[in-house]
Each structure stands twice: as structure tokens, then as C-alpha cells.
Amino acid sequence: MLTNPPDGRAGITADLVRRLIRAQFPQWDGLPVAPVPVDGWDNRTYRLGGTMTARLPTAAGYVPAVGKEHGWLPRLAPHLPVAVPPVLAKGRPGEGYPYPWSVRGWLDGETAAPGRVDDLSRFAVSVGEFILALQRCDTTGGPVAGEHSWYRGTPPASYDDETRHCLDLLRGRIDTRLAGEVWEAALAARWTGRPVWFHGDISQGNLLVDHGRLSAVIDFGTCGVGDPACDLVIAWGMFSDESRAAFRATVAQDEETWARARGWALWKAVLLLVDCIDTDPAKAAANRRIIDEVLAEHRRPAS
User: Fold this and answer.
1) Class assignment of domain 111-299?
2) Strand 43-48 versus strand 52-57 pairing type
3) Residue 58, number of CB atoms within 10 A of its CB
4) Could you tell me the residue ranges of all domains in the chain?
5) What is the crossing angle of helices 176-188 and 281-299, to 10°?
């Protein structure tokens, strides 16, 4: 199983991007190159002129996403209700950089946050509609969930050892007995549906808003074809109460799928909590909230 690699970002610089552009795409040579204000872990992204971005994987584990997105985003985009990153070119290793990379069109908007959204319940419906539209896309020849998707789209059991280890470390600091029940329920909730497309990381950082509404979904590096339960984790990550109910009603998934989704949410939250519980009170509080709400829903599943 893939594990988080050491930070390989240090060798990726604006100067490297300029050299790669000059060598491989001379038609764009001379355009300004600048890091984006909000960057991710898997890739480093740079503005290229006013209408493009250059996106470079930070480690070998993220390389499969380059070809996957390059081939599939143009096929998925026409069937989705909001914009996804426009694919413009695929770069090759060079200038001392060892991985393939990509050039994309720039998408306007800000990363989603409750304060940037006009109506959180309406936003939750929009996210749910995007997920359903993605699930309706033709899966013929699509990448079956596995290592390339960091096991999103597979059963939560892919992370069984890691989750149990985190629960052991958190014993006495959260309700690990009930959390264990949530995890066991997720493992027991078998998926028997047809394979569908999933994004794999529907989260605030990968949703863009413009004028208070969902305008784009980015970062399809963990996408694939399989079980869509992993795309429901935002129900606890961003939504609550009325907005969660609106999201749940829109995606209209069965209880077995929601049980697996609670497992995915629990795995991510306990993994992050172990890392920050004694060092970052704000981040710890955010993950404790997710855990508490997942446990509460397990006691009394939402209707």
C-alpha cells in the first residue's frame, strides 16, 4: 500500500517551471510564473501567465494521477454541471525533474469555506448534484479503484491496520469503543452496486466558489471507478445539520453506503488527530468535531 512520501516539494521552484516550459513548450516561454496562494500536498502548482497553471507532482506516488487526469478529464468534463480543470498539455521529465507534469487552464474562484458560500444547504445540493453527475458518466475503460486512487473506491478495509493503530493511540482521548463500532460497521457494509466514477477527495480545498456558489471541482488525482462511498465524507467535513440533510437527500445513497462513508470519515479524522492532538489545538478541535458527529450519527443514522 502507498504511504505518504517525504516532502519532495523543495526541489520544485518557479525557476524549474520556467526551464521546463522553455524546453518543452516554447510557445509559452516568457510568461510569468508564480506559485499559487493556496497549494496542495500532492502537487506544486504555479500560475503560468494569466490563463494557465503548471502542476508538478511532489513524489512518485502522485505520478499516476498525471496521465489519468490528462486522459479522462476531457472525457468527463462535458457531462459535469460545473467546470473541471481544462487539460492543455502533458510535460515529460526534464531539467533535473524526474516526473511527468501537466499544464492546465486556470479556473477562477476561491476554495470553499462556509463564509464564502451564500447558502450552505444550497451549496450542499450543488455538491451532491456534481457527485451524481459524475456517477452517471460512462465507466467503460475507466481506471478501476486501487493503488493509483490511494485505495479510494475500494472497501474501507484497505486502511484497517492504520485505523486500528490510530484508535489504539487515541485510547482514553476519544470514545474509542464507539469509534470501533463505527469502523466495524463500515467493514461489514458490503458494496454490491455497479462500479461508478468517484472523485476520491471531495473536500473544501477541492471545491471552488464564485459569487457564493459552486463553480468548479479540482484535483481528480484520486479519481477512479468503484465504490462511491468515499465521496460522501464532506457530509461531516463541511456540512452539518440542515446542510448535511440537504446533501444526504440529494445524493440518495443507501444506508450501507453511508456506513462505509462514516468509516472513511473516521479513518481520515483519527489519522489527522493523532498527528495534531498535542501540537495544533485548532486542527485537533476540527477533527474531534468530525469524529463526534460521525459517532453521533452512528448511534442514530440520519433519515
Assistant:
1) alpha beta
2) antiparallel
3) 22
4) 9-107, 111-299
5) 60
Within 8 A by CB and 6+ apart from 198, the residues are 134, 135, 145, 149, 152, 153, 223, 224, 225, 226, 227, 228, 230, 231
Q: What digits encode the pLDDT tens for the residues 182-234? A: 999 999 999 999 999 999 999 999 999 999 999 999 999 999 999 999 999 99
Q: What is the 3-state secondary structure (H, E, C) of 137-187?
A: CCCCCCCECCHHHCCCCCCHHHHHHHHHHHHHHCECCECHHHHHHHHHHHH
Percent helix, strand, coil in the chain (nearest 5)? 50, 15, 35
Residue-wise pLDDT tens digits, 1-60: 333 333 445 589 999 999 999 999 999 999 999 999 878 788 999 999 999 999 999 999
Task: Name the CATH code of domain 9-107 (choices 1.10.3720.10, 3.10.20.90, 3.30.200.20, 3.40.630.30).
Answer: 3.30.200.20
| Torsion 194-265-235-205 (CA) sign | negative
For residue 208, what is its C-alpha cell? Answer: 471552488
Contact 232, 110 (CB under 8 A): no
Helix (H, G, I), strand (E, B) or coil at 45: strand
185 closest CA partner among 263, 290, 294, 252:
263
Contact call for residues 266 and 167 (beta carbons, < 8 A): no
Residue 157 has, within 13 A of its CA and on its CB side, a CA count of 8
Between the alpha carbon of residue 161 and those of residues 43, 76, 186, 226, 267, the distances in Å are 27, 34, 14, 21, 10
Lookup: cell for 302:
440520519
